[in-house]
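tool_log.txt
---
The assistant was asked to compare two proteins side by side. It first ran the structure predictor on the initial sequence, then on the second. Raw inputs and outputs are pasted verbatim so the downstream comparison step can read them without reformatting.
(1)
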Amino acid sequence: MKDPYAVTKQDLEFWSVLKIIFRSVWFEFKGLVVLFLLFASVSGILMTLAPKLLQEIIDGVIAGVFVNQSFWKLLFFYGACLLGGELGGFISWQFSNFIATKVEDKWRYAALGHYYALYLAWHDRRDSGSMGNKIEKGGSAIYAMMHELLGAQLIVSFITLIFVISYSFWLFPFIGFLIVLP
C-alpha cells in the first residue's frame, strides 16, 4: 500500500490533499471510522423517525383516537428517538474529534521529523521560527478540515439528508423527487 503520509508537489490541490488525509485516516483508524459512520447513521435514522412520531402523536390527539396506553407508548418512542439521535450525534462528534486530533498529531510529527532530518546547511539558510509556524498552521488546517468541516458537521448532516430523502421517496415519491430536483 502507498505510504499514507507521502506528499508530492502534484498533491498540493485541495482535493488531492483531502484524499491524502482520508487515506491516512483509513490507514490508521479503520475501526474508529466504521464506528463513527455507524453512530452517525444511527443518529440520522433516529432523527428522521422523530418528526414522524411527533406527527402521529399530534394526529392522534387531534382526532381523539388514542387509547391512553398507545399515547404514552408513542410519546416514549418519540423521546427515545430524540435522545438516541442526539446521543448518536454526540458520540460521532467525539469520534470525529478524537480521529481529527490523532491525525493532526501524526501529520505534525511526520512534518517535524522531516524538518529535523534536513541537513544543517539548509537550516542555516532559513528562519526556523517561520518553518515551525508553517508546520503549526498546517496541523491546524488538517484538524479544521477533518473535524469542523467534514467530521462534525458535513458527514452527519449528509447521512441524515440521505435518510430524509429516502424516507420522502418512500412516503411521497413526487415530493421526494422535488427535493432532489434542485
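(2)
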Amino acid sequence: MTFNPQIFNPQNINYKMILSISSDLKEKETTFNFKKIEIKSLNELMEIMNNYAISNGLFLNGNRHSRNIKAMGNILFIDIDNEPNLNQKPYYLDIEYKLKRLNISFVSVPSKNADKYTYKRHIAIILNNNLPLIKKEYLRAVYEIINKIGIDLNKIDIKVQENQISFLAPCTINKNFKNYK
C-alpha cells in the first residue's frame, strides 16, 4: 500500500483522530500504560496534548517499544525546539500560517518548557488516514507531508518524526504554565 500525500484533513471537518496517551509521566522515560484513544474534536485534542504524554504509535499492551508497535495513528506530531535568531519570530508561527493557508486541520500547544522558552511548541497535524506501519513507508510518508507543507527540517526536532515510538510530554508537567486556548 502506498501512502497518499493528499490525506490532510481540511479545517472545520469533523473526523475521528487516533493516537496513544499515557498518564504515566516520567519525563523521557515514559514507556508504559499507553492506550489507544479516539477523539472527535480539535478542542479535545488540545486538552489531551496539554495533560497526557502522547504518541502516534499504537502499542501492544500499552508498552511503548519498537517491538510492540501494532499500528500508527492519523496524527503527525511536530516538535519545535529551535530558538529563533534575534528579531525573528518563532518558527511555529510559520508552520501555523502554512497549515492555515493549505486549509489543514491542526492543533498547536506550548511544550512543557514554554513558560521559559516561548518558542517551544508541539503541533499536531490531522490526517485522513493512519500513517503506514512499515518503517520505510512511514518515513517516506512523513517526509512527503513535511515537504508538501514546506516545513524546514533544520527548525524542528526531526527525531520525533523519524521514530515511530516517539512521544511528546504534556505542557502541564511544568505546573507554572497556564493552559493555552
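---
observation on (2): The first helix runs from residue 42 to 51. The first strand starts at residue 17 and ends at 22.
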